[in-house]
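Team,

Forwarding the record for the chain on the shared tracking sheet. I've put the sequence and predicted structure together so nobody has to dig through attachments.
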Amino acid sequence: MLIQAKFTYRGDMHCETPTPDGRGVLSITPAMRSGAAAPSYSPMDLLALAHGTCLAMMMGKAAKGAGLDIGGMTVEMALEMAEGTPPRVGSVKARFVLPRKFAPGELAKLKAGAEMCPVHRALRPEIPVTLELITPE
């Protein structure tokens, strides 16, 4: 399967990606975010969003296959940048807040499903990724 992306470099460290509704998503460097005229994401924000949504969807696929419902789950992604140059991601933490309690075997199935995420698998193996599943007390 070929996946393509198209965007326009607008100059001055700004890129714009068209969305199906025609509005577009603006991408800027983190240092330029303050005072930006339009809602925008940095490339690292977009990486966190791509990784997190992919993890959640693959977990959703595993949940459906196991007859589980994870609707309403929230996901928090944290990308920590490594020290030094060149700039690079040093670690990733994904926190999944599940809508209800699950048995340990069910949690294992959900986590295994998340680990099938192609974005997750595209990260360099030396980047530690923590997947934390949280259930209500």
